[in-house]
Amino acid sequence: MTKASLVVASNRGPVSISVGSDGEEETVRGGGGLVSGMQVALDSAGDAVWVCASMTDRERSVARRSAGRPLEFSAGDAGGGDFDVVMIPIDGVTFRQAYNGIANATLWFVLHMLFEPTRRPLFDAAWRRQWAAYQRYNQSFADAVDRLAESGATVMVQDYHLFLLPALLRERRPDLKIGFFTHTPWVSPDYFGLLPDDVAHDILSGMLGADVVGFHTWRWAEQFQQCCQAVFGKVPDDQLKVYGLTADLDEMNSRGQQADVRSAARELREEIGDRLVIGRVDRAELSKNVYRGLLAYRELLHRWPHWQGRVVHAVFDNPSREDIPEYREYTAAVERLGREIDEEFGTDDWTPLLLTIEQDYPSALAALTLTDVVFINSVRDGMNLVAFEAVLLSERDPVMVLSRETGAADVLGADAILVNPYDVGQTAEALNQALVTALGDREGSDDSAARRTARLREAATQLPPAKWFDEQLRQVRSAAEQTS
């Protein structure tokens, strides 16, 4: 195959492979900002390739048959762009140990401060075998990118699954222009120091192999600098950049008007009636803090009982990381609490909570179109794109209750009600304040709601995905030229 001038490397690729109703393999385009944001640049490059891991046994089989060549379909056939996709056939054991054991059960937990220190983390011999798998996983990506990238190519590495890759590539291919972007938050040196010393060193060194290391906000970049100071005794100079990814207005407007979303919205409206809607859409993910969010809603109904019968909390969560025990236990606890709220407050003509934990993207978007109060109380979030999508999709003048520990708070905080995600009482008070404001907005008491919404929507589209990725490409190439 022709070597590529632009390579994107990420754990999950822009397409997945499944079996259709006719028994034949079919490709399905991935969704979200990562795919759409890179598509424009990949299309225009002409000889671009996206390198990703095979996520399932079926994908591993297809990847082995392809023998390192691009898959025998174009991403355009699956709704994507005109670029090649190469899946790496990483063996199942290595993938599971690297993905579940290290990326999701260790690195994600560190960067989102999710560990319970009395029991975890625990870095024993079994964990070291998982770390060795993570190293092999990153090495497999280095082999693939090295083979696919032409001389002087630009390589854009994505996220915490591939922390080691930039340095591996730099050692092999000093000619490459390398960008690295982490979609997660970062943490203080004290918390990062939970990791074994050699692992912390290798992660920071791996990322600094890039010409540019990108974060969603300066808050995360500065904490990364502090970790570098603690580990190396110095901080990187001009390598760190901030690219605050927001939403695409045209894409949200288009998706919100599609038939499946409008149909789901009609069904929801019939069920909810004209009640105020507190809406949240996220994953059943520990960092999203759904459990404390439900506790805050229950406290709202206790402390301000006049809202009973007048508000519905619509929660749409995608299942997440069901291979990890903590996630299964957390999802079960959320479902139990949801049943308790319905049993305690529900009446014959009012269901206080609509809790859905399944993949139902049209209904999730429909809930956002009906939302009066956008509710996001994440323990931590690198950014949280739903915050931006919600203010664009809502047909109201939405009031936002937003965790101060999200990157989105740095963008939208001036016009949101910020909360400490651990403080259930404060969050309940914020929900009450938001409902009072939303009710006044509906009654048209003044034009402040429209002005607030206009500011939120302007902020929510500052750096849409295509512009976000293009800005990174420009700065990576500029930085590489200055150091060459």
Taking all residues together, what is the mean pLDDT? 91
Q: Oligomerization state of this entry?
A: single chain
Could you say which structural class the secondary elements and strand pairing correspond to? alpha/beta
**Helix proportion of residues, in percent?**
40-55%
Main β-sheet, in a few words?
7 strands, parallel
Number of beta-strand segments:
15
Largest sheet, spatial ordering of strands? 5-4-1-6-7-8-9
The low-pLDDT segments are 74-80
Mass-distribution shape: globular
Percent of sequence in beta strands:
15-25%
Rg from Cα: 23 Å
Number of helices: 18
Query: How far apart are the termini?
Result: 28 Å
What can you see in these coordinates?
With 484 residues, this protein is of the alpha/beta class. The chain is 49% helix and 17% strand. It contains 18 helices and 15 strands. It has a seven-stranded parallel β-sheet with strand order 5-4-1-6-7-8-9, sandwiched between helices. A six-stranded parallel β-sheet has the order 12-11-10-13-14-15, sandwiched between helices. Strand 8, helix 8 and strand 9 form a beta-alpha-beta unit. The chain is globular.
What is the compact description of this entry?
It is built from 18 helices and 15 strands. With 484 residues, the protein is α/β, with parallel strands linked by helices.
